[in-house]
Design a protein that fits this description.
Structural class: alpha/beta
Largest sheet: 7 strands, mixed
Radius of gyration: 15 Å
Number of helices: 4
Strand order of the largest sheet: 1-7-6-2-5-4-3
Number of domains: 1
CATH architecture: 3-Layer(aba) Sandwich
Low-confidence stretches: none
Distance between the termini: 21 Å
Strand content: 25-35%
Shape: globular
Mean pLDDT: 87
CATH topology: Rossmann fold
Length: 156
């Protein structure tokens, strides 16, 4: 079976945030979303908008120096932990040893992971959100994995 993949072109910041909110609406407890893209592509902007759509009230900031931040949100009316991990500084380390990764991958949580390469082998079927620069103000977003199958291709 071919992997499902969807793409959006020339998204400005408002459109990127709207897409993140749509993605958040398709999430279920236990989901892991891996965000790929170079520095400044909009990964944290995407997570911030998705977390807001999940009902997170606190300010969502990049956890680069703390590796992980947790928030309280809601999926389908149920309270869930919304985790935001940034594994950029774990390159070359075993993510499971450096960070108690299992704590963030519980069935009752939704977890967003930036710079996930050190942990990719530990993540089961994550949704992948790839954000690429198209211009200084626009992005191309490609979503693949089980997350793409839940989104309607009509809005691509």
């Amino acid at each position: 079976m071919a992997e499902t993949s969807l793409a959006w072109d020339d998204l400005d910041e408002d459109a990127l945030e709207a897409l993140a909110a749509r993605v958040a609406g398709s999430l279920a407890p236990g989901d892991v979303v891996v965000l790929k893209g170079e520095v400044g592509a909009g990964k944290t902007t995407f997570v911030r908008a998705a977390a807001r759509a999940l009902g997170v009230r606190e300010a969502v900031t990049s956890p680069t120096y703390q590796f992980a931040r947790g928030y309280e949100g809601f999926v389908g009316g149920r309270v869930v932990d919304v985790n935001h991990l940034d594994l950029y500084r774990l390159e070359g380390l075993d993510a499971r040893d450096a960070l108690d990764l299992d704590e963030y991958l519980r069935p009752g949580s939704v977890t967003f992971v930036e710079w996930a390469d050190p942990a990719l082998g530990l993540l089961e079927e994550p949704g992948i959100v790839e954000i690429l620069h198209r211009s200084p103000a626009t992005r191309r977003v490609r979503i693949s994995g089980p997350l793409a199958a839940r989104l309607s291709p009509a809005s691509c």
